[in-house]
From TrEMBL:
Residue ranges, annotated region (SAW): 583-658
InterPro entries in UniProt: TF_GRAS (IPR005202)
Family label: Belongs to the GRAS family.
Protein name: Uncharacterized protein
């Protein structure tokens, strides 16, 4: 064993009641309470890392030392290898315990101070790190029924990405826009024709646009009307498509007694026709947003600003969910037009927001959705099953994007209750380096917290902290041993890794190949199921609009409209992400989700095969969602992936893999 590791052990034993999954939330909440009560937590910066913040830091250091080389690498293989050298560090934390219940932390660090560009930084997706405290959970559950009185009475936020497209336009205009889009992609592509090869499906869409009567982003007005009739947010009670006050009171019973979709669509069609006759100024924000994105893609600034002005008149950061969605997307469009997207995104990332402030804001996302808790339950159950069926007495978990480590207290508690005793637990926590002289400080603190938790439950514990770019990690740095049951864990943490449309050697594939070289017993992988990572701005905008419409609708349904934490989350987190998706390009666009099908292809190509879902586990988790959350949350299965979604739209997915 690596001599830098000193195990955490405790003498004596105590009888531990075997934990049940129902305790999971409480254990997580208590663990977060201990984090929030730590000294100086109000002053400490958040652990939610941002790749552009690291990129900006590296660039400023380059300026200080007088290097004139480009911030971004050239796109050939040789220059990529040269510029991959960046500020990085690897830290091992050594824990010692004594009978005095004292935990000492020492650090053996090796820091490479060579400064290079952050060309493939990875930041943990903010939407997926949601926390709560026990007090808030109890209050939330008790107040759901009463709080429903303040929820909006209509639901017009969910948008159908498959069919909601644009009103008609001339063939000449459509072809011109497509040509401009192709030109933009060629200019932004580092590899020319190769980049187009990597996005064959996008080229197919463009080719289809050339041969069709209308552009791929346009549709006949009759088709658009039919689509609107099918959209769930078009309710017969809606007075206007964007400007209603939403002051009516409703309850859950109202939802269950609504007419079926066909009847509702028929009524909506009649209602909309009447309103169009009486309201000549009625505005369709969805249509305006997509029209504006089309104008931006065509570099038609005059039309784009006119459309933005109309959008601004009917959007608001404090309005209903639909108006808030439009406000966030309008900000992104305006920044792209002005060419200030990267600056605004970096400025938001550099705000001095404390860890406590972000944790308290994120807890309301955790309260509103089961997404994160179900992802962790799925992963922990797969790990627990491995331990039960393995003859090895040591468990090694390599956690990409460990952050505060809130996933592990419940697993530690479960291991302590095993009949044959807990296996020796070793966790390798991997994060991006933080700017400054202690790049691994926060990931080290996570190890200290977990060590104290293991001490409480008499679990032998070792912790190894790594803070560097993930695709640069070497397998020897992970200290893997044959006598350990090895688990690799990644819960929606690969979203911001650059793909092969930006760099020739994809960091996503590099990390998957690294995991394959580890030869883990299981690889638990959860992803954000999004398709707005496309290099095509038009496609990316539309897909992002459809996905985030679900998120804003979810908040509008489960949270009070005037809640300050909700507003903070929508503006500072969702708004931050939307700004990056719409207004940034190249290396500066770090929000790059892929669908579960795309990740499945990558994983199989790396040498993995997916394990079948355990039906008992899926049934159990589905029951928890049904019992504890809003009825529109759902768990489905698709190709051995467990999907979580809202109102039929799949948001995230979990899977378990083994080497093929």
């Amino acid at each position: 064993m690596d001599p830098s590791f000193v195990a955490l052990t405790s003498s004596g034993s105590s009888e531990v009641v075997p934990p049940d999954d129902s305790d999971f939330s409480d254990d997580v909440l208590k663990f977060i309470d201990t984090i929030l009560m730590e000294e100086n937590m109000e002053e400490e910066p958040s652990m939610f890392l941002d790749p552009l913040a690291l990129l900006a830091t590296e660039k400023s250091l380059r300026d200080v030392i007088g290097e004139e080389s480009s911030v971004y690498p050239h796109q050939n293989a040789e220059s990529t290898d040269e510029y991959l050298i960046s500020t990085s560090s690897e830290h091992s934390i050594n824990y010692k315990t004594s009978s005095g219940n004292h935990v000492e932390t020492t650090r053996d660090s090796s820091i490479d101070n060579s400064i290079g560009p952050m060309i493939s930084s990875m930041s943990s997706h903010l939407v997926t790190n949601m926390f709560s405290d026990s007090q808030s959970i109890l209050q939330f559950k008790r107040g759901v029924e009463e709080a429903s009185k303040f929820l909006p009475s209509n639901n017009r936020l969910i948008i159908n990405s498959e069919s909601y497209t644009m009103p008609p336009a001339s063939r000449e205009e459509a072809l011109e826009i497509v040509a401009n889009t192709e030109k933009e992609e060629r200019e932004n592509s580092p590899k020319g024709s190769r980049s187009r090869k990597n996005h064959h499906h996008e080229d197919s869409d463009l080719e289809e646009a050339r041969t069709s009567k209308f552009s791929a982003v346009y549709v006949r007005e009759s088709e658009l009307s039919d689509t609107l009739d099918k959209c769930p947010f078009w309710d017969e009670k809606v007075e206007s498509t964007c400007c209603d006050s939403d002051e009516q009171v409703h309850s859950e019973k109202t939802k269950t007694t609504q007419p079926n979709a066909q009847q509702r669509g028929s009524k909506v069609k009649k209602t909309r026709a009447k309103k169009q006759e009486s309201r000549n100024e009625e505005v369709d924000l969805v249509r305006l947003l997509i029209q504006c994105s089309q104008s931006v893609a065509a570099e038609d600034s005059r039309s784009a600003y006119d459309q933005l002005k109309r959008i601004r008149q009917h959007s608001s950061p404090s309005g209903d969910g639909f108006q808030r969605l439009a406000h966030a997307f309008a900000n992104g469009l305006e920044a792209r037009l002005a060419g200030t997207g990267s600056l605004l995104y970096a400025a938001q990332a550099s705000k001095k927001i404390s860890a406590a402030e972000k944790l308290k804001a994120c807890q309301f996302y955790f309260l509103a959705t089961p997404f994160r808790i179900i992802l962790m339950l799925f992963a922990n159950q797969m790990i627990a099953d491995l331990v039960m069926n393995s003859s090895k007495k040591k468990l090694h978990i390599v956690d990409f994007g460990i952050q505060y480590g809130i996933q592990w207290p419940m697993l530690i508690k479960h291991l302590s209750s095993l009949p044959g005793g807990a296996p020796k637990l070793r966790i390798t926590g991997i994060e991006l380096p933080r700017p400054g002289f202690r790049p691994a400080e926060f990931v080290e603190e996570t190890g200290c917290r977990l060590a104290r938790y293991c001490k409480r439950y008499n679990v032998h514990f070792e912790y190894h902290a790594i803070a560097q770019k993930w695709e640069t990690i070497k397998i020897k740095e992970l200290n893997i041993y044959d006598d350990e049951a090895l688990v690799v864990n990644s819960l929606v943490t690969f979203t911001s890794l650059l793909d092969d449309s930006v760099v020739e050697d994809s960091p996503r594939d590099a990390v998957l190949m690294l995991i394959r070289k580890m030869n883990p017993d299981i690889f638990v992988h959860a992803i954000l199921n999004g398709s707005y990572g496309s290099s095509s701005f038009i496609n990316r905008f539309r897909e992002a609009l459809f996905l985030y419409s679900s998120q804003f609708d979810m908040f509008d349904t489960t949270m009070a409209r005037d809640d300050q934490h909700r507003r903070y989350f929508e503006q500072e987190i969702f708004g931050h992400e939307i700004m990056n998706v719409i207004a940034c390009e190249g290396f500066e666009r770090v929000q790059r989700p892929e669908t579960y099908k795309q990740w499945q292809i990558r994983s199989m190509r790396a040498g993995f095969r997916i394990l079948p879902l355990k039906q008992e586990l899926v049934k159990k988790l589905r029951g928890k969602v049904k019992a504890g959350y809003h009825e529109d949350f759902a768990i489905e299965e698709n190709g051995q992936w467990m999907m979580q979604g809202w109102k039929g739209r799949n948001y995230c997915a979990s899977s378990c893999w083994v080497p093929a």
